[in-house]
TrEMBL record:
This is DUF1479 domain. It holds the Pfam family Gig2-like. It comes from Fusarium albosuccineum. InterPro entries: Gig2-like, IPNS-like_sf.
Length: 385
């Protein structure tokens, strides 16, 4: 889970993603089409078929799911405190000069946090020059589509020369190869995927200005939204089966086998992509400190994933004003008779969004932490969940 800071913006970022195979043709849009909160569209209640789906998912597993929810809340309370105390320091960091060894030493911590900073992937002067070249291009092409229109911050640029240079840089290719092959695996030998062959997913480019507050994208998860619960979505690969069976501890977010057949864009949204991206990432072109508009992540990937998946099956007994609102005893399983169609933060055709109101136990105000200070040429990678 990640978000963009609302405080102060960095001077330049190149974003890119590592992925497998893609095939898609979409209408043009901008980043606001990817999230309900940015589009300004009214969020309509989900149709009743989602209530029926939820009932079907938990029928016969009520006790197991209820018990797993209780275990999850207890673990979240403990881990949230650790995150809040450590802040940006909790995000693993390695130097490119000692990349393979550094990742090996921090392997389990990277897997737990779901994010890593790799410093000095591209020489600083070279990365900074990318930004100069991009700004010159935009200056010469003022019609370049961007969001928001009145104060451009996120540009619909995908194949500019600096972006291609960054994606093809030998250091960057080395980083991708190792992050994919060393941290991911496939539990099935028949899975049609190569973990050591990175492909480029061409994403847009962001250049935010200092003090910007117009690009206010909050906590979110890419890769679809309602598809996480749907049988013809992630259900096709059984990606989250362990969580929905009441055994979230056994869920392996680093197993690529089920994700290859999963469908994360059932509704052909303009924002979501149809390819499986093991990692997503940001190659920086500028100096950016915490609270200056840099990226924020929730470094409890497995726990936050389980919470987002299980949250739609539980409700509070007392309102948010209650002093014991977050207590385990204040939350109950809805049961088939009380089930609603709501999938908190999920809207067909857009990304999964998270808020304190909808996902209170994630304690987002404290657990969405800035990544450490970033320089031009540093790369931040995060797991697709």
């Amino acid at each position: 889970m990640l978000r963009a800071s609302l405080v102060r913006a960095p001077k330049g970022i190149i974003r890119r993603q590592m992925a497998t195979v893609s095939k898609s043709s979409k209408k043009e849009g901008d980043i606001s089409d990817a999230f309900t909160s940015l589009s300004g569209a009214k969020k309509e209640p989900l149709p009743d078929r989602f209530r029926e789906l939820k009932c079907e998912l938990v029928r016969g597993r009520e006790k197991e799911i209820t018990a797993s929810w209780s275990r999850l809340l207890r673990q979240l309370r403990k881990e949230n405190e650790i995150i809040a105390k450590k802040g940006p320091a909790v995000v693993p960091q390695v130097e490119y000069a000692d990349f393979e060894t550094g990742v090996d030493v921090m392997k389990e911590e990277i897997r737990k946090r779901g994010a890593v900073v790799i410093r000095g992937v591209i020489p600083e002067a070279e990365a900074r020059a990318y930004k100069d070249e991009i700004e010159e291009y935009v200056k010469k092409n003022p019609s370049t589509r961007a969001f928001p229109a009145h104060d451009p911050q996120v540009y619909e640029l995908y194949w500019s020369a600096p972006q291609l240079k960054a994606r093809a840089h030998p250091h960057f290719l080395r980083v991708q190869h190792h992050l994919m092959s060393f941290l991911w695996h496939s539990s099935s030998a028949d899975t049609p995927i190569f973990l050591d062959q990175p492909l480029s997913y061409a994403d847009r480019l962001r250049i935010r200005q200092p003090g910007d507050a117009s690009f206010a994208l909050g906590p979110h998860i890419d890769g679809g939204s309602v598809e996480r619960w749907e049988k013809e979505g992630y259900g096709r690969g059984g990606v989250y089966d362990k969580i929905l069976e009441g055994n979230w501890e056994e869920h392996d977010p680093w197993d690529a086998s089920g994700r290859v057949s999963a469908v994360n864009n059932l509704y052909d949204g303009l924002g979501p992509c149809s390819m499986f991206r093991m990692w997503q990432g940001w190659m920086s072109m500028s100096h950016t400190k915490p609270a200056e508009g840099t990226l924020l992540v929730n470094p409890l990937m497995k726990l936050s994933t389980a919470y987002v998946l299980l949250r739609p099956f539980f409700r509070s007994k007392r309102g948010r004003v209650s002093a014991n609102y977050l207590d385990e005893e204040n939350w109950e399983f809805m049961g088939v008779d009380g089930m609603t169609s709501e999938l908190q933060g999920a809207t067909p055709g857009t990304g999964q969004e998270c808020t304190d109101e909808l996902h209170p136990h994630l304690d987002l105000e404290r657990t969405m932490v800035h990544v450490p200070e970033i320089k031009p040429g540093d790369f931040v990678a995060w797991h697709c969940d």
